[in-house]
Amino acid sequence: MLDNQIKNRETHMGLFSSTEFKDLKCLFIDQLQDIYDAENRLTKALPKMAEKASDPELKSSFQQHLQETREQAERLERVFEMIDEKAETKTCEAMKGLIKEGDEVINATGDETVIDAALIAAAQRVEHYEMAAYGCLRNLAERLGIPQAAELLQQSLDEEGNADKILTELAEGSINREAAHS
Ligand code: FE
Ligand code: ZN
Ligand code: FE
Ligand code: FE
Prior knowledge:
Bound molecules: fe (iii) ion, zinc ion
Helix content: over 70%
CATH topology: Ferritin
Radius of gyration: 18 Å
Structural class: mainly alpha
Number of helices: 5
Shape: elongated
C-alpha cells in the first residue's frame, strides 16, 4: 500500500479541497478516517447529552453508548492496523453539524421531558449517519477481501442499530407520552 494515496489538496484560502480516489482502497481509507473523526467527536459529545438528559433510562443509554463509542474507535484503530495505515482523522463535516444541532438542545431551556425528546431526536440522527457509514465500510471491506475488518465493522454497525432501537423504544415509551402532557 502506497502512502499518500489520498491526496488532500487545499488552496491557501482553505476553501476548496479535492480528494483523489485511485481505487477502492483509497475510498475505504477515506471513509475510515471520516468515521474515526466522527466517533472521536462523539466521545466528547455524549457525556454532555447524558448530563442534559433527565430520564434516568435515557441518561444511562447515553452513558452505555459512550462506552460502546470508545470501543468503536478502538475497533477502527484495529482496522487501520489491518491495512497497515496510521489511524488518522479527516474532519467529518456531517458529524460536526449533527453535534452542533445536539448542542442546541444541550443549551436549550424548557420542559425537561420535551428536552429529553429533543435529545433523542438529535441522537437518532447521529445513529443513522453512523449506520450508513458502517454499512458502506463493511461492504467495502468485503469487496476488498478483508473479512476480519468486515466483521469488526459489522459489530459496530450492529451496536449503532441497537442504540437507535433503544432510543426509539424510549421515545415511544414514557418520554414522548410525558412530553405530550407538558
Ligand atoms: Fe459510533
Ligand atoms: Zn462524515
Ligand atoms: Fe440537520
Ligand atoms: Fe453511535
